[in-house]
Amino acid sequence: MHSPETLAVVLPAFFATGWFILGGSDIGTGMLLPYLGRTARERRLVIASFAPFFLGNEVWLIATAGVLAGCFPTLEGELLAGQYPVLVALLTGWVVRDTGLWSRGRVRTDGGGRRRALCDAAVVCGSWTVALSAGLLLAALLTGAPYEPVGGPAGVLVALAVAALFAVHGLGFATLRLTGPPYERARLLVGRNGPWQSFALTAVLLGALPPAAGGTLPLAAHAADPATLALLVPALLVVTPFLVAAQVWTWIAFRRRVTGPSYL
């Protein structure tokens, strides 16, 4: 049987991997909103493609932070202090994007063109900010400097590469969900590969990033005391299957392509 210490190390990697794969799909699609949706109706269609998923996807990021705070409080504090600017940018982008999504649904369809354009800009800018911030955070971890923001050409290149991977992942997701002209635009960039092949490939690449980056962190040395882990880890193991089941149900329930705008 696995010890609580071992499971405590595995759990944050599992939740972070889930966010990169699942959350990466709606973030990447939001990054490409101006390309995929050329008209107001098309942009609503693009947003409708990930509207049922984005809140559930965000739970994985919250779970990652929660596990780090509970099972590795000292390490989490050091990371927060060292990566403060990057994490503030990530959270700001997250809030801006979600504000744009929710505000867009409150704009009247028979008017408010400027407000709708502002909401769309918030979705795009927020999505790019989250992707680039995640890339900068990974760059710091992968280069062995987890306690300070990474700088220089290497950090910029890693951040851009991760953001590009998010965008391609969103493109694959779009080919699975969209119809009409937005689908055709997404399919044009995906190329000859089938929609599922493209999405699966980027999912594997994104999913490999958190374990690779987390391998540089001294998780075992910074774990909470055994009594705390003995309490938290079993509770997490009880909750995790429900999170996975809810995610699977959502993807099954909304597996069909979207043909019309949603509440957003």
What this model shows, in words?
This protein is an all-alpha fold and 264 residues long. It contains eleven helices and no strands. The longest helix has 30 residues. The protein is globular.
Quick gist of this model?
The protein is mainly alpha-helical and 264 residues long.
Give a count of the beta strands, DSSP E runs of length 2 or more: 0
How many domains? The number is 1
* Rounded radius of gyration (Å): 19 Å
Strand content: under 5%
Could you give the order of the helices and strands? HHHHHHHHHHH
Main beta sheet? none
Kindly state the mean pLDDT as a whole number? 90
Q: What percent of residues adopt helix (DSSP H or I)? A: over 70%
The chain-level structural class is mainly alpha
Based on Cα principal axes, name the global outline. Answer: globular
Task: Enumerate how many helices there are, as a single number.
Answer: 11
End-to-end distance, in Å?
A: 46 Å
